[in-house]
Amino acid sequence: MYTRTVISPLIAATMLLVLAVTAQSAQVDLKFTGQLRTRAEFDKRNFDFGKANQSYLLLRTRVGLEATVDTNTHAFIQLQDSRTAGGTINGTATSGLTNDGKNVDIHQAYLLIDRIWTNGSSLKVGRFEMNFGNQRLFGAVDWHNVGRSWEGALFSHTTSKLKLSVFWLKRLEMNNTSSNRDFDLFGAYGTLPRANIDLFAVYELDSDTSGMNDDINRLDRITFGSYFKRSFGSSDFELNGAIQTGKIGVFGGDTIEQDISAFLITAELGHTFSAASKPRLAIGLDYASGDEDLVDSTFKSFDNLYYTGHKFRGYMDYFLSSSRSGLLDLVARASVKPIVGLDIALDAHYFQSAADYRDIHGKLTTDVGTELDLSLTSSRIKGSLLAAGLSLFLPSESFAAANDPDPGLWGYTTLTVNF
Asked: For labelling, which of 60, 68, 74, 288 has a CA lying 20 to 30 Å from the CA of 322?
């Protein structure tokens, strides 16, 4: 999902050439942006205290330049270096030696036209981040040390009654002259501001038939659904719903093509009290359907698409990928702002699989475990943002694949400077 591409440097070079030419005859305003972020992590998520502790420091550097041409067209280039302190490239250390880590890549490089044809219509082309709704299905995963970017085109039209985005994204370009083996996405995302509801549809086509019997496509899937968020005085409610249909090629003894029939529903109800510290309590549900029968004609497991998983299913990230058995997450949240510039939050997750899975003893079960996440965010240090957290996971024996497993532990401290 986070692979490097060869098209991004070409896009950047083209944009620089365009800027050099237009600067001679057009009004060009330049804006420089950047971010430095460090995150130290303590990682003991393996359910075995007998194994060595893991601790590491992640570094992320972003530098961006935006040129606004004639007040209507924007060219944005963002370089990024993401690394683990003391890491290696091809077995050679990148810290303390006179070698070059060669770790810089283009995170974003796009052209954005604010007004195309009519007022309210805009076009973005190139490599860019993309967030929709609360990022439950499409998100840039800013928590990740790299983050997610797409390459393609995004057309938007905005009125007082509707904001509509239509996009084409290239997930994979194979340049195969014998047959189409590309992976493309087509979608539309609409927001109705007066109703506080979003409606969307995404079509994914992975045309690669290699290794498949009878030229079966690996994926031919449509996901459509809605997102709703509204506040009622001091209370708030959030709802996601999605259905997936289409066909998927599944590897087994023989490749089979299954009909997709899967769904997702998430909801959260919260209340913020009137005290000066703004205490908030909330309860939530996240249910992604699963599949017990792996060889019948129907694929019932919901795929979470390209979501920002760290926001939703516990900070320890055990459930980032989509599981064939699905997932049920019941969550309770509490947060408070004891002083200005300081937020403290505690989340409690109770996890089960949506469908039975078979553990190491051959038993069918839905048992998974419980997670507690304590987090702190502070902006009290001028010019920077400090975040820290500590998490505990109490697994079932089935999920840990061990008898009498130890708890999972994980903690982090992050310092970010944006400029």
From this structure: 60
77 CB-side CA count, 13 A: 18
Q: What is the DSSP string of 67-124?
A: EEETTTEEEEEEEEEEEETT-EETTEESSSSS-----EEEEEEEEEES-BSBTTEEEE
What is the rounded distance in angstroms from the CA atom of residue 174 to the CA atom of residue 180?
Answer: 8
Paired tokens of 151:
């390459």
State the pTM of this model: 0.89
pLDDT, tens only, 142-153? 999 999 999 999
Residue 399's H or E segment, with its range, is helix 397-400
Could you tell me which residue, 379 or 361, shows the higher pLDDT? 379
CB 116 within 8 A of CB 123: yes
Tell me, what DSSP letter sits at residue 135? Answer: S
Q: What is the dihedral of CA 77, 81, 82, 84, to 10 degrees?
A: -170
H/E stretch holding 7 = helix 7-22
What single-letter amino acid sits at 319?
F
Q: How many angstroms separate the CA atoms of 118 and 165, rounded?
A: 15
Residue 80 gets which letter from DSSP?
E
285's tokens: 């549900």
Query: Average pLDDT of 333-358?
Result: 97
